[in-house]
RNA sequence: GUGGCCGUAGCUCAGCCCGGUUAGAGCGCCAGGUUGUGGCCCUGGAGGUCGCGGGUUCAAGUCCCGUCGGUCACCCCA
């Protein structure tokens, strides 16, 4: 085969050997997401997968790795600079502003994101995120609710070793002074830091704290949470208090810095502690009170969450699940099976059979492999059918099969 | 952007280090046997440009160079 999926992408198809390609897991994760998002009052939101490049440059932020190195940017036939969305928040906020949104507003999204980077396990050029945004919401309980949604969902789908990490990044009131203090601290240790970190001091000193290489030299670095203004400290405290009241365990992590520039105050990450560190972040989010203004809108405080479905799939591994209820074995040809299947399908049963006219033996093998709990053997349209479930066998007219199954199973 | 490992059957891989008749295994697929018409087991069959291009050699899946692709890690992130 001369074509493969492009670098950093993959197919979700039946019969593939990798867990990441298992359609069953994807279907259940995406379905479960819709249930939980609606439970928390977040209606479906759909925005384009591509946007004006400038939206991301201004929204996500020029110092972020995502914008400087990882964007899929191209010029369309009209000469516009277009970028495949690297994350979901900027587009949703843009859509809210365009709709003239006023007052508290909620939206849930689910879809592919794109980042051009070297792929590896759990990191793809096209990857799937589900998330929510809560806009025009300033109070700390909004943060707590968003975090709770992520926590309940990840717990419900069964991510093993789930851990919530929490931090506050301050706001325009207290962060500038802290950054000066941090920069001074970092400049004093310039010789000890790695090359990348030195470059970051002037661009985004916060992210130096995240550098694993430099970590040993930064143990006494000043921390944002010790330098919050009163309003930010109160906000942070309130979020923590309500998480405790909700019985959601968290670990406060003063080094938690998110990769996107727009975060203010609350920042959090969900970690699957049983995954390798390289891909153990299954989700994250935070507050972004300045984002709307930075893309030219009115001030709109907001908080959001994004979960990486690819990584959740990896965390869960494969699961076996039957996808059909009945497999029909026909001794009188595929045409009869087609008609019998039609009857059962219209009754709501999930039914499959062999269209290729293979041997009865091969049909039985297919029945086994299909995972169907019931095998129906037929010898002709007007003859009674043989219904086998586990060890039991019964003979009945085709018309009675659906009722019988509903009654027994 | 940097580094390690790997490209042989539909899938997972052995064979390469120590070049040599028709390139193997398991699973899967097809047919048959056994069976309480299938699941276990047994027999047979189909299926391979050994990633691609050069080079060395009487001879290259095997050695050398290049190239493309995959994968994992660093970085960063979901």
What is the terminal separation in angstroms?
A: 44 Å
Number of helix segments? 13
- CATH arch. level architecture of the largest domain: 2-Layer Sandwich
Which stretches are poorly predicted, pLDDT < 50 over at least 5 residues? none
Q: Tell me the structural class.
A: alpha+beta
Share of helix, binned: 25-40%
Seen as an oligomer or otherwise, the chain set is single chain
Give me the CATH fold name of the largest domain: BirA Bifunctional Protein, domain 2
What is the CATH top level name of the largest domain?
Answer: Alpha Beta
- Chain-averaged pLDDT: 89
Number of strands: 15
* CATH homologous superfamily annotation of the largest domain: Bira Bifunctional Protein, Domain 2
Major beta sheet summary: 7 strands, mixed
Instruction: Give the strand line-up of the largest sheet.
Output: 4-5-10-9-8-6-7
Helix-strand blueprint:
Blueprint: H1 23-39, E1 50-52, H2 53-59, H3 65-69, E2 72-75, E3 81-84, H4 89-98, E4 105-114, E5 126-135, H5 140-157, E6 162-168, H6 175-188, H7 195-203, H8 230-245, E7 251-252, E8 264-272, E9 281-287, H9 291-294, E10 302-308, H10 309-316, E11 326-330, H11 334-346, E12 351-353, H12 360-370, E13 374-378, E14 385-389, E15 392-396, H13 401-408
Parallel strand pairs: 6-7, 11-12, 11-13
Antiparallel strand pairs: 1-3, 2-3, 4-5, 5-10, 6-8, 8-9, 9-10, 13-14, 14-15
The protein binds one RNA strand of 78 nucleotides through helix 3, strand 5, strand 9, strand 10 and helix 10.
Report on the structure:
The protein is of the alpha+beta class. It folds into 2 domains: 19-174 and 228-316, Bira Bifunctional Protein, Domain 2 (BirA Bifunctional Protein, domain 2); 326-408, Anticodon-binding domain (Rossmann fold), CATH 3.40.50.800. The protein is built from 13 helices and 15 strands. It has helices spanning 23-39, 53-59, 65-69, 89-98, 140-157, 175-188, 195-203, 230-245, 291-294, 309-316, 334-346, 360-370, 401-408, and strands at 50-52, 72-75, 81-84, 105-114, 126-135, 162-168, 251-252, 264-272, 281-287, 302-308, 326-330, 351-353, 374-378, 385-389, 392-396. A 7-stranded mixed beta sheet has the order 4-5-10-9-8-6-7, with helices on both faces. Strand 8 (264-272) and strand 9 form a beta hairpin. Helix 1 packs antiparallel against helix 5 and helix 5 runs parallel beside helix 8. The longest helix has 18 residues, at 140-157. It is elongated, with a radius of gyration of 27 Å. The relative contact order is 0.12.
């Amino acid at each position: 085969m001369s074509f493969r999926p492009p670098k950093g992408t993959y197919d979700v198809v039946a019969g593939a050997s990798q867990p990441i390609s298992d359609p069953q897991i994807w279907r259940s994760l995406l379905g479960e997401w819709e249930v939980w998002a609606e439970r928390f009052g977040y209606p479906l939101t759909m925005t384009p997968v591509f946007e004006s490049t400038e939206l991301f440059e201004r929204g996500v932020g020029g110092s972020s790795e995502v914008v400087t190195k990882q964007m899929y940017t191209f010029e369309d036939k009209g000469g516009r600079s277009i970028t495949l969305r690297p994350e979901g928040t900027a587009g949703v906020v843009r859509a809210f502003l365009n709709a003239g949104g006023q007052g508290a507003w909620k939206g849930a999204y689910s879809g592919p994101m794109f980042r051009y980077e070297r792929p590896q396990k759990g990191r793809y050029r096209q990857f799937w995120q589900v998330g929510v945004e809560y806009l025009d919401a300033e109070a700390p309980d909004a943060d707590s609710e968003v975090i709770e949604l992520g926590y309940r969902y990840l717990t419900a789908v069964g991510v093993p070793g789930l851990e919530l990490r929490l931090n506050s990044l301050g706001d325009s009131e207290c962060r500038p002074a802290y950054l000066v203090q941090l920069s001074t601290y970092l400049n004093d240790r310039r010789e000890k830091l790695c090359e990348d970190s030195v470059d970051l001091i002037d661009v985004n000193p916060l992210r130096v704290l995240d550098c694993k290489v430099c970590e040993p030299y930064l143990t006494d670095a000043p921390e944002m949470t010790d330098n919050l203004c009163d309003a930010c400290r109160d906000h942070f405290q309130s979020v923590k208090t309500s998480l405790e009241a909700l019985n959601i365990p968290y670990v406060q992590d003063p080094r938690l810095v998110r990769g996107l520039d727009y975060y203010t105050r609350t920042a959090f990450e969900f970690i699957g502690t049983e995954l390798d560190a390289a891909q153990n972040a299954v989700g994250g989010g935070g507050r972004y009170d300045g984002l709307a203004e930075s893309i030219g809108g009115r001030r709109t405080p907001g908080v959001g969450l994004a979960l990486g479905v690819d990584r959740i799939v990896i965390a869960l591994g494969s699961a076996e699940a039957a996808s059909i209820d009945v497999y029909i074995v026909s001794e009188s040809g595929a045409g009869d099976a087609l008609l019998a299947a039609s009857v059962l399908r219209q009754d709501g049963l999930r039914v499959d059979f062999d269209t290729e006219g293979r041997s009865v033996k091969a049909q039985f093998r297919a029945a086994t492999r299909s995972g169907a709990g019931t095998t129906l053997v037929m010898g002709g349209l007007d003859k009674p059918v043989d219904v086998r479930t586990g060890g039991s066998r019964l003979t009945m007219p085709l018309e009675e099969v659906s009722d019988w199954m509903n009654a027994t199973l």
